[in-house]
Design brief:
heterodimer, A: 352 residues, seven-stranded parallel beta sheet, 16 helices, B: 219 residues, Methyltransferase, Methionine Synthase (B12-binding Domains), Chain A, domain 1, Rossmann fold, 10 helices, 57% helix
């Protein structure tokens, strides 16, 4: 690897402050890959904050990642609202998955209440992880779903999608609870660590345009994103990291109406070109992305390298900056050399 | 007059499915049977045609998954009433397919939509559900003598189970066709796994299955 002129922390601080960085930062979205990399069972990426943090920290050192360890999963919301999840096991699982949902019927919604953010579900583990982040001076990145994704984890998505057309008032009730929960949780983190230290990550995988229409996004998702963003930024938090997961090209005009901080951070999947993300979001957010996980997993090293070089080239035009990142979580079984290709593409790019 | 009445009822059934009207779909199916109209005809001219239209609306981005789900509810409301009345020798069965989400993956919305489209198109679908142990696909194909096995995965991690199923299936019977689909898949990956077919969407799945069936004898 080419020797760095600044530390990873300095590089990220410079990026967030709008200053030039010595090279494009590399963002690791690969919890499971890291635990496997150091010989821990995959489940520890989610079930054991200490091991998860250590595995990510060691792998960061090995590959030269810039952003520090993160902790979360896409099914967030099920456990916290009273359902059950199970940790990944066997050879083909990647992340925690649903076992039972707190909401299956209309009546179940009446029984829902706002979770206690100190004790509910995954949050005590997340707090333990964030204490490690604080101890090591890495960014405190609390990972949550968006209101819509949390609603889709409170009840099976097939029910949620049906209710969107048949009983929209029920969906709005779930969205209202999810939004209040997001705000409660972020405020708790801000109280513990100080608002300026916390960078909430909001993942939105369920708003995929292969599933819902941009009009449905406008009606069911945008208002709640705007509300939660305004409240989060109102605490003094400076940056919100949004993971715009999957095919959301048609939603981008709406995403551009969401406050994200100064600057925000938006990571996009391989389905969204970096140039397109810059066009819609580049003025307000650092753009991160968009290396396809399936190419990282199955592609040849040269293919990964070329993809990364192209992404970096496109990312140069991002006015608020760019980070190289996989478009969604890197599969745990990704060939390690393909991860090295990400870093090599950065080293070989004469970016700044 | 009776012919016109039958055509009109079948058209109404078609429209009820396209308009996501489950109640009307069930009621019309009962009326169709009560008036002695052939159930098989109602299915092929009403329901199959309706889901074909729904697929077209999805492809043209006029309908999205929430709409497809409600159309499927209307479809099954009708099929539950009409199917038991179809005489076996008259049934327009395209072929048999074993369908499931591979081990390690709980995401089944895509697989369920594939089932809807296949059911509507007259296939016999053996749905194994989600998080299906790999050997279950082989066992079910053996039990049913299905023409095709269709595998679904949403995660890149669970996608890795597909080549193993394909290998197991081909080792037992190289003539069984295997098709795959799901968000992380591409035709290139499907081909590298040894799959015979690939469908990007649930709507494409029916055409792909028909293509795979063509060189074979319909059982």
């Amino acid at each position: 690897m080419k020797p760095d002129r600044t530390t990873s922390r300095e590089r990220i601080d410079a990026l967030l402050a709008g200053r030039t960085t010595d090279h494009v930062p590399l963002y690791p979205f690969m919890l499971g890959f890291c635990t496997k990399n150091v010989g821990y069972p995959l489940a520890t990426a989610y079930s054991d904050p200490q091991k998860s943090f250590a595995a990510q920290l060691w792998t960061q050192e090995q590959y030269g990642f810039d952003w520090g360890p993160i902790y979360g999963y896409a099914s967030y919301g099920t456990w916290e609202f009273g359902g059950q999840v199970k940790m990944p096991e066997g050879g083909y699982e990647q992340a925690p998955s649903h076992v039972s949902f707190p909401v299956q019927t209309e009546e179940d919604i009446d029984r829902l209440s706002l979770p206690d953010v100190k004790t509910a579900g995954f949050l005590p583990l997340a707090m333990e992880f964030s204490r490690l982040q604080a101890e090591h001076g890495t960014a405190i990145t609390l990972v949550l779903g968006s209101s819509f994704t949390i609603a889709g984890n409170m009840c099976p998505v097939e029910i949620l999608y049906r209710w969107m057309l048949r009983k929209p008032e029920l969906v709005h009730r779930l969205l209202r609870l999810a939004t209040a929960h997001i705000i409660d949780t972020v405020k708790y983190w801000a109280d513990i660590f100080g608002a300026e230290q916390v960078i909430p990550q909001i993942w939105e995988p369920l708003a995929n345009n292969d599933i819902i229409s941009p009009k449905q996004f406008e009606h069911f998702i945008l208002p709640y994103l705007q509300e939660s963003s305004a409240s989060i930024l109102g605490t003094g938090i400076k940056h919100i990291f949004y993971h715009i997961c999957g095919q959301q090209n048609l939603n981008l005009p709406y995403w551009s109406q969401v406050s994200m901080g100064n600057p925000g951070i938006c990571s996009v999947g391989s389905e969204i070109e970096i140039g397109t993300a810059i066009k819609h979001l580049g003025d307000k957010a650092i753009i991160a992305g968009n290396i396809a996980p399936h190419i990282l997993l199955t592609g040849r090293p040269q293919q990964v390298y070329d993809l990364c070089k192209n992404a970096i080239e496109a990312g140069k035009k991002a006015p608020r900056g760019f980070m190289l990142m996989s478009g969604c979580e890197t599969p745990p079984d990704t060939p390690p050399y393909n991860i090295y290709m990400m870093r090599k593409a950065i080293d070989d790019s004469d970016c700044y | 007059m009776a012919k016109e009445r039958a055509q009109n009822l079948i058209k109404q059934l078609h429209d009820a499915v396209v308009k996501m009207d489950e109640e009307a779909s069930a009621q019309l199916s009962k009326t169709i049977l009560a008036e002695g109209i052939d159930a098989n005809r109602a299915i092929t001219e009403g329901l199959t045609a309706a889901m074909s239209k729904v697929g077209e609306l999805y492809t043209n981005q006029e309908y999205w998954v929430p709409e497809l789900l409600l159309c499927s509810d209307a479809l099954y409301a009708a099929l539950d009433i009409l199917k038991p009345e179809v005489k076996v020798e008259e049934a327009d069965i395209k072929g048999q397919i074993v369908l499931g989400v591979v081990e390690g993956d709980m995401h089944d919305i895509g697989k369920n939509l594939v089932k809807v489209m296949l059911d509507a198109a007259g296939w016999t679908v053996h749905d194994l559900g989600r998080d299906v142990q790999l050997e279950r696909f082989v066992e079910e194909q053996q039990r049913t003598n299905a023409d095709i096995v269709a595998l679904s995965a949403l995660m890149t991690t669970s996608m890795l189970a597909m080549p193993k199923v394909i290998q197991m299936m081909k080792a037992r019977d190289p003539n069984v066709a295997v098709m795959v689909g799901g968000a992380p898949l591409t035709r290139e990956i499907a081909s590298s796994y040894g799959a015979d077919g690939y469908a990007k969407t649930a709507v494409d799945a029916v055409a792909e299955a028909v293509k795979l069936l063509k060189p074979r004898e319909i059982k």
